[in-house]
Amino acid sequence: MLRLPPFVYLMPKTLKQAVQWKRDAGPEAMYVAGGTDLYPNMKRRHQEPKVVISLAGVRALRRKPAERRNGGTAEGGLTLGSGLTLTEVASDRRIRRRYPVVARGAELISTPLLRNMGTLGGNLCLDTRCTYYNQTYEWRKAIDFCMKKDGAICWVAPASPRCWAVQSSDLAPLMVALDARFQLIGPDGERTVPAPEFYHNDGMAYLAKQADEVLTLVELPAPDGWDATYHKLRRRGTFDFPVLGVAAWVCWAGGTVADARIVLGGVASWPQPVPDAADALRGSRLETEAIEAAATAAFRPSKPMDNTDFGLAWRKEMTRVHVRRALEELRDRRPR
User: What is the pTM assigned to this prediction?
Assistant: First the structure.
């Protein structure tokens, strides 16, 4: 049985208190929300904080979906508290009606039990994963550890100077495709970061969020003429992390694609945008030729590594397949 190491558990009631306690505790402290990512990592000694600061009691993070306002005027988007559970995101009536793709993305994560615990912010800040990293301490010690924790070599690409652990969040590629915005608060105050700028293509330094900052709010753009979908590939129909995620977003002008975004998850250390695939769709009506061109454009830069489930060549080919399926779904909902 894997056991948690000893640690001090703190439960602040306000964001101000949480940030202050984190500053007082220093680098040996970590925040925790639902704990579905941090606690298993602590059991495997990936993270070993001496102080764990729970955000579960901070009511400000539990903000229900609310109309986003600017100077008292509604902008049409929604603002979600990062402490909402994945179950709440998946089942909220307003989200399901106005942003069904967000509800669907949350619904595809793990199992009902873990969705009841895991949070929106936790999934967006999910630690990167790798076959050589997500193992017990003794297993990792037997291979002399890895670059991401305690070692000096990335066993996926031993000659590489960087870590290739994979981004495995389901909601992250979706938020990048939607061009959502994240509000952070820390010792230096508040700041807002667009989702595409929140993630870095590095398995270790994968977030723009600083360790002493809290992700507080997620701002969704107004559903103004756009449609989006998310497709997920995994071995089992539930529980498993994605070995490929495809977020597809199109903005319609009548029945023509005025703008588009394709973002891949599970094949790199960040949610990987594919601009060439988007270029292939602009000005089209999602005809078969345009969809095939976009699927091929997404296939080219998709470079899954040997650090998750299934074979590399098959996973790469599935990029083409799932981009095609996602775009066909959007075509079937094209405005007439």
Answer: 0.96
